[in-house]
Design goal:
Elements lengths: L10 E7 L10 H14 L2 E7 L13 E4 L16
Parallel strand pairs: 1-2, 2-3
């Protein structure tokens, strides 16, 4: 995280996930710690969470939180649409 540049507008987008992928196992505790740290450093942190919506309860400093969650065992697909 020391290599992240500061931004003039304070905006940083972070993507988190906890969906199991073949051959990958992400450290969930470390991910939550990083989001908490970044929320203190970036005033307009945007968290895009591909995980349970209840994780937002752990991030009281995060103002912008977008969650895509499905109980399905199939790998979820994220689709971005421009408005």
């Amino acid at each position: 995280m020391e290599t992240l540049p500061s931004t003039d507008d304070g905006v940083l987008v972070v993507v988190t996930e906890n969906h199991p992928l073949p051959g990958e196992d992400f450290d969930q505790v470390l991910a939550k710690q990083r989001v908490s740290e970044l929320s203190r450093d970036y005033s307009d942190l945007v968290v895009v969470a591909l995980r349970s919506p209840y994780d937002l309860l752990e991030f009281s400093d995060v103002q912008h939180y977008l969650c895509a969650h499905s109980p399905s065992q199939k790998v979820p697909k994220l689709r971005c649409l421009s408005c």
